[in-house]
UniProtKB/TrEMBL annotation:
GO molecular function annotations of the record: N-acetylmuramoyl-L-alanine amidase activity
Entry-linked Gene3D superfamilies: Zn-dependent exopeptidases
InterPro entries: MurNAc-LAA_cat, N-acetylmuramoyl_amidase_3
BP terms from Gene Ontology: peptidoglycan catabolic process
Keyword 4Fe-4S applies: no
A GO cellular component entry from the record: outer membrane-bounded periplasmic space
Annotated CDD domains: MurNAc-LAA (cd02696)
Top-rank lineage group of the source organism: Bacteria
PANTHER family: N-ACETYLMURAMOYL-L-ALANINE AMIDASE (PTHR30404), N-ACETYLMURAMOYL-L-ALANINE AMIDASE AMIC (PTHR30404:SF0)
Protein keywords: Hydrolase
Protein name: N-acetylmuramoyl-L-alanine amidase
MurNAc-LAA domain segment(s): 123-234
Amino acid sequence: MRKRRATLIVIRPPWRRWAAAVALLLLCALLLLPAAGLPIGAPAWWPTPVVVIDPGHGGYDPGVETDSGISEKDITLQISQTLAASLRTRGYTVLLTRTDDRDYALPGQRGRNAKRTDLDARIALAEAHRAVAFISIHCNSSPEATRGGAETFFNPSLTGSKVLAQAIQTELRKIPGMSLREAHDGSAYYLLQHLTMPAVIVEAGYLLIPSDRVKLVNPAYQRQVAEAVAAGLTHFLNSWSGTS
Ligand SMILES: [Zn+2]
């Protein structure tokens, strides 16, 4: 058997300096650009921005429940999974805070403490991945509401939150038959108080209003909401100045 000889490529001094400079520039781009939010349509090898989608509730916490046995946590998961798929086709890296029926409360925790631990885990996921946006999906449950419709909540003190909410609400209002609502101040929500990236809560409809309930369990309506949220987020990320 013939021995194979290892071949060494020797980089001569001038080229070595150039190679080091190019490698350094590439490293800087890779480290800095994800934090700034990357352009849509970047080449396939480029790091893509991370969007976190949060299906509201889960596990011990069903959210709103109807007399007919519908739980908010199931609808939020279905819409979130459709939304995640839509965003991935648009070039985003999407993380879901849950992909099944679970919560992040500690064993034995219930009530306010359980809720806080659960939400803190979802917030930590988004912060650890330096997400460019956080969208929490819910269903509204106001017993006083007399008309339905999807609506988006923002924190006016959180940079980007209101602009993102308005972009999403604009798209939600285009859904045929949608009750027209505006984006609202949701600064009382724990999630919106503690996240540091543009974040919103999308209430996909009113689960206790029969006309909305029929829609919320319908995969066709769930898809319409998901596509509207994806379109609003895409518009936001392509046009946001990063300052308001
Ligand atoms: Zn909810």
